[in-house]
Amino acid sequence: MLEAKGLSVHFGGLKAVEKVDLEVRQGEILSLIGPNGAGKTTFFNLVSGFLRPHEGSVVFKGQDITHLPPHRIAALGLVRTFQKTNIFADIDVAESVKIGFSSHRTAGFLDILLHGKRSRREQMDVKERTAELLRFSGLLGLRRDLVKNIPYGKQRMLAVALALAAGPELLLLDEPATGLNPVETSELRDMILRIRSELGITIFMIEHNMNLVASISDRVVVLNHGEKLAEGLPPEVARNPLVIEAYLGRGYAHAS
Ligand SMILES: Nc1ncnc2c1ncn2[C@@H]1O[C@H](COP(=O)(O)OP(=O)(O)O)[C@@H](O)[C@H]1O
Ligand SMILES: [Mg+2]
Q1: Ligand 1 mutation target, pool 20, 40, 42, most atoms within 8 A of CB
Q2: Which of 32, 84, 122, 218 could potentially form a cystine with 28 if both were Cys, beta carbons 3.0 to 4.6 Å apart?
Q3: From residue 5, how far is each of 17, 21, 53, 56, 155 by CA, in Å?
């Protein structure tokens, strides 16, 4: 579904991502792990159009997207969340999802902001789809709460819901479980599994929580110093001496 070949980007002398080959297969949950600063978020930036690679190519569903801007890539069905979400606006949860449904079409977005003349049918569709997505995301009970007032874990679920509103076929999640307590992490795990099983969406996830990674990933790719260090099934990767060393070398115990 997604194929990166020889992807590199350098910041000055720093090889943030260096000649990485990586493939995401349709229907899988693929996790990208590695110590802080390994180049994981930079890799997401490259494949989602937020950064231009210095070399290499990215092909999505058979189309070369290497030089497309982010909105064009999203429109093709490759949608991402960000490591640090900024969704604390003074609007309620339902409104933010409604805007999410329309924000990939500029006219629709303006229509909603200006309370413009969308057809009644279109409004109903957005309303119904919003309710459906809120229910799917476990946010229906919070729909009238201001986004900034709901618990942090629910804000992270909302960030995932907003990405779903854009209609992805491939969803990129950047550390979705960071800052979540165990109950919230388990809700997130359940949601990710349902995104795949009920919506048929392929998942490519950066995550530090190794329990979460091991319990839901079909495959794991490890980055270290911008390079691909290992790839395989979760247990294979977890016992790979190179991987253990990369984590221990930076003072991490996650990979053990
Ligand atoms: N826009 C940028 N300009 C300069 N350096 C950057 C930029 N983005 C990331 N870096 C550097 O690239 C390296 C990889 O960063 P990042 O991809 O965020 O790592 P990770 O997500 O694996 O923790 C880090 O050393 C980071 O400081
Ligand atoms: Mg990162």
Answers
A1: 42
A2: 218
A3: 12, 5, 11, 5, 34
Cα–Cα distance, 226 to 9 (Å, whole number): 9
CATH 3.40.50.300 placement within the chain: 1-77+168-256
Q: pLDDT tens digits for 13-32?
A: 999 999 999 999 999 999 99
CB-count burial class (<10 Å; 0-12, 13-18, 19+) for 169: middle
The model carries a pTM of: 0.89
Ligand 1 contact, 40 CB (< 6 A): yes
For residue 45 and ligand 1, the question of a CB distance below 6 A is answered with: no
Taking the domain 1-77+168-256, which CATH number applies?
A: 3.40.50.300
Distance CA 53, CA 50 (A): 10
